[in-house]
Hints:
Rossmann fold; alpha/beta; binds adenosine-5'-triphosphate; 13 helices
Amino acid sequence: MEEVMEDSAAELTQEKSAATQPEKGYAISVKGLHRSFMNVKAVNGVSFDVPHGAVCGFVGANGAGKTTTMRILSTLDYPSGGKVEVCGLNVVYFPHEVRKIIGWMPDHFGKYQHLTCEEYLDFFARAVGLKGEERKERMEDVIDFVGLAPLRDRLSNKLSKGQTQRLGLARALLHDPQVLIMDEPAAGLDPKARVELKHLIRVLAEEGKTILVSSHILSELAEMCDSLLFINEGRIVYHGDAESLIEQNEASASVVYNVELAENYERLAEWVSLNPGIEYVETTKKGGRIRILNNDPKERVAVLAAMVRDGLPVVEYHKEERKLEDAFIDVLGNINTSTEEV
Ligand code: ATP
């Protein structure tokens, strides 16, 4: 907090003027963000920018620091240090202004026992200052947009997970925010609901909204996001697009092979355990997935030759398309290795 307060009055004036020109600069700008809870460094020097109109996926393991970062962006928590701006407005100095331009969709939110969906949205529409006809129109717009019309009279605490997420999105959109922060919106949704959510997010981006969305499902994020932001133990470990990450890691990283045997499938795991330079990833129906740590093509030939030499009845041996998950794991692996080396 002390570091945050060091900014000068001149800077505050500049920030106010930046807010009147929202298309200038970045929609989200985070510089050297720190947040500690007692001795836990939840966020440890995070910096990133998200341009206006972009969808940015926020990825990281449980406890990596996503929610903490998002809560600070949404003015629900204070940084311990660093600078966080939304459309040029510092979230610490201008929380009220930031709330007008930001929509926050938390992973869980409270609902009122006796309010229907419509009443619930009406309550929040009033809370964000919408009045009269404008409030009614805006409510109809968001109800329509998220597909809540058939459920408008249903009690808000009687909704399924997917329906609750729709209500949460409708609530976050009531005041037509420029920036939307979504914490795990796809968690617990069935495949159809996830596809629909992806579609809604893309439509919002096409309307020019900037979206920061967290998820653990990398493939899904890659499909709907312009860039991915990976966080690990409170630090950003990658920010860029999914394709570049896969390409960047492909040349140097390990490769995964799918191996099928004609019989005695369990022999594969045993064989891998006896051979250095290869890791057993998982068992499949007729064999398993193995990771060859050296990406030299000669090594891959040598592995196949060794399996055959040792009597494994290999009927299938093919390289898997590199997945985003593999690239992410390699990024984390590289970090751990360099930390160990220090
Ligand atoms: P998940 O994917 O599980 O939601 P996350 O990446 O959102 O995780 P955070 O909720 O940001 O992670 O938590 C980061 C770290 O900070 C965790 O170690 C967590 O226990 C800790 N933490 C978060 N909020 C608090 C708090 N209010 N008090 C103490 N520790 C906290």
